[in-house]
Design goal:
It is built from one helix and seven strands. It is mainly beta. 11% of the residues are buried.
């Protein structure tokens, strides 16, 4: 992933929650922190599988949460083509014997060099 400012649009879909939600974030990716999983998978979650090619990153992760009987499972894929990115991610978890899924669609665009305050 090219270091610099990236605008990433995320569309979240979860049938249980109704209307899809769209968010936009601008992040500064430096050569030291250009691995997107560093920001996407945080404690107590752990990456359980990961593969990468020159332009595609695929991953699986899981979390053990105190009040849930089963682990939360997630997976995703991110493809970077020059100054654009696209991807998808999914999370599955069980609450009161009901399996729930949340899906994300990601699109992004390189905006240029990072500003000093970022």
């Amino acid at each position: 992933m090219k270091p610099g400012r990236w605008r990433v649009t995320s569309k979240t879909e979860a049938p249980l929650f109704g209307t899809p939600n769209k968010t936009v974030a601008i992040s500064c990716i430096s050569s030291e922190n250009k691995d997107p999983l560093d920001k996407m998978v945080e404690d107590p979650c752990k990456v359980t599988d990961r593969s990468a090619t020159a332009d595609t990153l695929k991953w699986k992760w899981s979390c053990t949460v105190k009040n849930l009987p089963d682990p939360i499972l997630g997976s995703g894929e991110l493809k970077v083509e020059g100054e654009k990115l696209s991807g998808k991610s999914s999370v599955v978890y069980t609450v009161k014997d009901k399996k729930l899924t949340v899906d994300w669609t990601l699109t992004g665009k390189y905006l240029g060099e990072c500003k000093k305050a970022e």
